[in-house]
TrEMBL record:
UniProt cross-references to CDD domains, sorted A to Z: Ferrochelatase_C (cd00419), Ferrochelatase_N (cd03411)
Positions that bind Fe(2+): H215, E313
Subcellular location: Cytoplasm
Keywords on record: Cytoplasm, Heme biosynthesis, Iron, Lyase, Metal-binding, Porphyrin biosynthesis
Name of the top EC class for this enzyme: lyase
Example GO molecular function: ferrochelatase activity
Name of the protein in question: Coproporphyrin III ferrochelatase
Binding site for Fe-coproporphyrin III: S83, Y152
Organism of this sequence: Microbacterium oryzae
UniProt pathway: Porphyrin-containing compound metabolism; protoheme biosynthesis
Catalysed reactions, as listed in the record: Fe-coproporphyrin III + 2 H(+) = coproporphyrin III + Fe(2+)
Gene Ontology, cellular component aspect: cytoplasm
One Gene Ontology term from the biological process aspect of the record: heme biosynthetic process
Role played: Involved in coproporphyrin-dependent heme b biosynthesis. Catalyzes the insertion of ferrous iron into coproporphyrin III to form Fe-coproporphyrin III.
Amino acid sequence: MTDRRTAMTTASTVPYASPASADGAPFVSTPQRYDAILLAGFGGPEGQDDVIPFLRNVTRGRGIPDERLEEVAHHYRHFGGVSPINAQNRALKAALEAEIARRGLDLPVYWGNRNWAPYLGDVVKEAAQDGRTRLLAVATSAYSSFSSCRQYREDFARVLEETALGGEVTIDKVRQFFDHPGFVDAFVDGVVDAVRGFFADGVAPQAVKVLFTTHSIPVDDALRSGPRDIDFGPGGAYEAQHRAVAEVVMAKVGEVLPEAADISWELVFQSRSGPASQPWLEPDICDRIAELPAESAEAVAIVPVGFLSDHMEVMWDLDEEALEAAEEAGLKAVRTPTPGADPRFVAGVVDLVEERMAATPREERPSLTKLGPWYDVCRPGCCENVRAGFKPAAAGVAP
């Protein structure tokens, strides 16, 4: 893989950016004041009547009929039509507010979603009405891809245009935090606890498998994740980032449990939703679980490394389907926790905010993989949507 530290530093105007970020440099060098934090979430239904309207929002522009949406709706209906994601974002918002107050920062947190109330457009208007016009966004996704980064940035631009606030409000975004200690360390304890439990049950290290799982995406989208001038391998920056984080987590597990050094791990994928004719990242987690007994595995730790909190893809695809697959395979299985509102993660997010405000030099920024620290301002051509191409986006250099 090409050394990303030699990536281009071409200056360019960044739409809707603060003065410190507008020149397009990958890392800001001028301290910047912000008025508020914009916590940007995916959103989810909060009742049975919300499910189909929510799924229409998620799939807008694709022409998917309601009868096909019902195939996904049953996941939500299983839980009373309520996605846990909004409650989790409320908890994260409250935790961020408490940590920000503890540090004496005058930064209210506005929370808005892409696909359900409270909508981003409404909260951006609310912030502007409150006189908070210089916003720093934190998206609830740690990795680089269209759906986990650029789509948020496109929504920021869309909202500023639709609200006619593009000449008044600026939106920057903290760097992708996949390898920030606050995010990574929140996974380690869960893996240690799972492995210790297997050992206590008499499972030998060689019979334990750790599967790090994340949302599958189309291969073509994966190849376009991250800057286009860097070769990250066949899965693009998206897969490379996940593999790098998993490697760090297992190294930290080994520091706590030296006997875990013989445990094997791999990256798997879940929640595929595209047509069978379209290649998506593989292998699927349930397919791999079914294969493990033939490889002399007796226990599997399922680590949702691609997810910030226990939302639907975790509660259904892992807690229901993957754990059922493990039971059918005769394997002991544990699904480890997501960061959620873990104090280490919350503190790490506020560290990222202060890092951006202070324009901390790149070499002084914490990152646990060779891929980081990631960029403050997304690079030209980063994370293209293969089907729709590039739309206007905030917090990045235009392609």
